[in-house]
Amino acid sequence: MLDGHVDEVLRISDPALSWLRQVAIAVEKENRLNVGLSASDIVDICQARGLDFPNKTMTTSLDELSMYAGRLLARLFRDVSLNETLSIDRYEIEHESRKQSRCPASGGDFFKQFYWFRKR
Prior knowledge:
Elements: H1 5-13, H2 15-29, H3 39-49, H4 62-76, E1 85-88, E2 91-101, E3 109-119
Antiparallel strand pairs: 1-2, 2-3
Helix pairs in contact: 1-2, 3-4
């Protein structure tokens, strides 16, 4: 009867976890489950579905919103190893870091995070 109750209490007490649950619902409504999404993709989905970010960020810049979403996701996944999942409600979210190349003029490579939302 109380199965999952502790997880639900933790989610409700953390606005970022509640936001991530809403993102998962929006990802499903956008038919983007099982698709690797970047922080920018997640921001686009949030804007398309009218989802507010936790702590009511004042910026409307897509770059700043993407960085803010990336910081939120990094905090939520801090204790989750790569290729392990974070479970929220009826969703599982997995993250992966992929090496990306910059344009030759900028030089160097960087790692970009991708997130997969799946139903349990």
